[in-house]
Design brief:
Decomposes hydrogen peroxide into water and oxygen; serves to protect cells from the toxic effects of hydrogen peroxide. By secondary structure, the chain is an alpha+beta fold. The model has no long low-confidence stretch (mean pLDDT 95).
Length: 699
């Protein structure tokens, strides 16, 4: 039986060959000449001109001047990690010849890059945006790139519109404003004139655009691909990544504040989680559609603005992916990794999805200029673990040394090598295609509103409130009233109530109902209200402490959180330690002023009369509680610590008179009764508690 770690080890050895560490090394030039001074240029005397013959100075400055490569046009802001994928069993073998999906004894190394779409490399992580979810599988049959997003649909149906969409969402060309935001005239002008964007805009205005972390984010292949088995039989497939921790999001007000407090929030959480051994994990699933059922739906399978509802075609679990190693160098790996939708292996093929067809050209084209020529596949992060043998030669950055006399096919001088093969080779799916060359879209792509309504109908009440608020915020930033009116009129085709609520918030006349618009179908799988809520792994909890804190309570709370995989941090007015009620010391993790409640998933105030008195008098500590409440986060308060609720202006919550009580995600305990720690963990696992009057609290 093959060693499950063999493929992972092969990729690691490949990377190790290119790794250069600082240990025990002397400084040299690029030619290996040792250097004795890199702080002073060679000059004529101490105050004279610098000499051109200073080759070390010239080399150092020249290399610095050329350090930057073009950033990605889209998905410029990203973070990545290594890991492995392993299928559960061989049950997919009847559908595909791809061994990495069908051999449970094989562990396939992966590199995953998460990203935002619209912003530049220097933008913030937590903006309202689609997130890229791109996975490179280093399989023994070659590299397979599943280049997807955290939303299952896209803005446009045909790739010829992609430049128009990106130009519209990017900063406006006259002012280069706004950065990494869709809340401006050009994007919404594009949207109002392109009804096919409607379904995707519903997703973008939902909380799916504000993921709590990459580990709590779904991923989708977006397009309908095709699996091909050993006999050449095809099956349509859509790929899904489902996070082990469930799909959870942040609050819009919260994300804006996080962008200022820690613009690296999502990438920092990913890095810190892996370093702490809290490895992010996803399950790969597939929706399979027999070819004979291609036209069995009320939408076109080739339309990238449509989903296959899970109630119609369930997602079939295939395998498990775990990310367990951070890159050693961001530029060399995360920045230079090159994904391409055309990187497929035997057993996976394309369909005629017009957006996918465009991507098959665009990705390679952009990598050629971004990475400086056709040899970018030789970079360690891009290089397959499968052997690479072909007649490609020369070009920028050629690092292979080819020793064969011939570089053409057919040849006799090199023994006919490398030779073409029949067994194990990639074979394109054979599909008969007939038709005239025309510029016309199929009528089966024409329904732009049905699935947008399906999405709206599937949302919980609090999700609908957030969607309405998002539309109001975004359109409220548009200066052209015609843009606002056009978008609202378009929304009337989705749901008249939605359009009316948005219109009332952006100062335009609510539209009349559209005859025949809307339906009552829904899909529970689309609502985050139905996401798993049984884990607190990776959640960060702020425990507010001051002199006189109950050290026993601090220890008990900390133990319960750590046992569940959460990360408690003790915050005080100043760094160092505080004096506990028993005379001992409680070490402080950070000072309150260096952090913010928006960087935590919950806030806890332990007991102790002096502790509570000091925290009540600290406006920043009170703000932590008020702001956490406003953002729907769990709050835990013990004994005298409960007094911070009133100081924070939170009056609608019932608190315990004795024992432990949970109301609207606020856990309180007076005295010794009840399982406070258990109730806190349960409230934290629920993620957010939206059944609050959050406007009643000024934070």
């Amino acid at each position: 039986m093959p060693d499950p770690t063999a493929r992972d080890d092969a990729k690691q050895r490949q990377l190790d060959r290119h790794r250069i560490g600082p240990e025990g090394a002397n400084l040299t030039t690029d030619q290996g000449v040792q250097v004795d001074d890199t702080d002073n240029s060679l000059s004529v005397g101490e105050r004279g001109p610098t000499l051109l013959e200073d080759f070390h100075f010239r080399e150092k400055i020249t290399h610095f001047d050329h350090e930057r490569i073009p950033e990605r046009v889209v998905h410029a802001r990203g973070a990545g990690a290594y890991g492995h994928f392993q299928p559960y069993d061989a049950s997919l073998a009847e559908f595909t010849a791809a061994r990495f999906l069908t051999d449970p004894s094989v562990s396939t190394p992966v590199f995953v890059r998460f990203s935002t779409v619209a912003g530049s490399r220097g933008s913030a992580d937590t903006v309202r945006d689609v997130r890229g979810f791109a996975t490179k599988f280093y399989t023994d049959q070659g590299n397979f790139d599943l280049v997807g997003n955290n939303m299952p649909v896209f803005f446009i149906q045909d790739g010829i519109k992609f430049p128009d969409f990106v130009h519209a969402v990017k900063p406006e060309p006259d002012s280069e404003i706004p950065q990494a935001q869709s809340a401006h005239d050009t994007l919404w002008d594009f949207v109002r004139l392109q009804p096919e964007t409607t379904h995707m805009m519903m997703w973008l205005m939902s909380d799916r655009a504000l993921p709590r972390s990459y580990a709590m984010m779904q991923g989708f292949g977006v397009h309908t691909f095709r699996l091909v088995n050993a006999e050449g039989r095809g099956t349509f497939v859509k790929f899904h990544w489902k996070p082990k921790l469930g799909t959870h999001s942040m609050d819009w007000d919260e994300t804006q504040k996080v962008a200022g407090k820690d613009p690296d929030f999502n990438r920092r959480v990913l890095w810190d989680s892996i370093e702490a051994g809290l490895y992010p994990e996803w399950e790969l699933g597939v929706q399979l559609v027999p070819e004979e059922d291609e036209h069995a739906f009320d939408f076109d399978l080739l339309d990238p603005t449509k989903i296959i509802p899970e109630e119609q075609v369930p997602v079939r679990p295939v395998g498990r992916m775990v990310l367990d190693r951070n890159p050693d160098n961001f530029f060399a790996e995360t920045e230079q990794v090159a994904f391409h939708t055309a990187n497929v292996v035997p057993g996976i093929d394309f369909t005629n999805d017009p957006l996918l067809q465009a991507r098959l050209f665009s990705y390679l084209d952009t990598q050629l200029i971004r990475l400086g020529g056709p040899n970018f596949t030789q970079l360690p992060v891009n290089r397959p673990v499968a052997p690479v043998r072909n007649h490609h030669r020369d070009g920028y950055h050629q690092s292979d040394i080819h020793t064969a006399k011939s570089a053409y096919h057919k040849n006799a001088l090199s023994g006919g090598c490398p030779a073409v093969v029949s067994e194990g080779a990639f074979k394109h799916y054979q599909e008969r295609i007939d038709g005239n060359a025309i510029r016309k879209r199929s009528a089966s792509f024409a329904d732009h509103y049905g699935q947008a309504t399906l999405f709206w109908n599937s949302m919980a009440d609090w999700e609908k409130e957030h969607i309405v608020a998002a539309f109001r915020f975004e359109l409220g930033k548009c200066t052209d009233m015609g843009v606002r009116e056009g978008v609202v009129a378009n929304l009337a085709n989705v749901d008249h109530g939605l359009a009316t609520q948005v219109a009332e918030g952006v100062g335009v006349t609510p539209p009349d109902p559209v005859p025949g618009a809307g339906h009552d179908r829904s899909s529970p799988a689309l609502s985050q209200a139905n996401a798993p809520r049984d884990s607190i792994e990776g959640r960060k909890v702020a425990v507010l402490v001051a002199d006189g804190v109950d050290s026993g309570a601090v220890a008990a709370i900390g133990d319960a959180l750590v046992d569940g995989g959460a990360i408690p941090e003790l915050l005080a007015a100043k760094d160092g330690y505080v004096q506990a009620d028993d005379g001992g010391r409680v070490e402080v993790t950070r000072a309150l002023s260096t952090m913010s409640s928006v960087l935590y998933d919950a806030v806890v105030v332990p007991g102790g009369a002096r502790n509570a008195q000091a925290l009540k008098a600290d406006g920043l500590a009170v703000h932590y509680v008020a702001e956490a409440y406003k953002h729907g986060k769990p709050i835990g308060l013990l004994d005298a610590g409960i007094e911070l609720l009133n100081r924070a202006g939170i009056t609608e919550v019932r608190t315990a008179e004795s024992g432990t009580l949970t109301d609207r995600g606020v856990v309180t305990r007076r005295g010794a009764g009840g399982d406070f720690a258990g109730a806190l963990v349960e409230a934290l696992a629920a993620h957010r508690h939206w059944n609050r009057d959050r406007d009643a609290v000024v934070a």
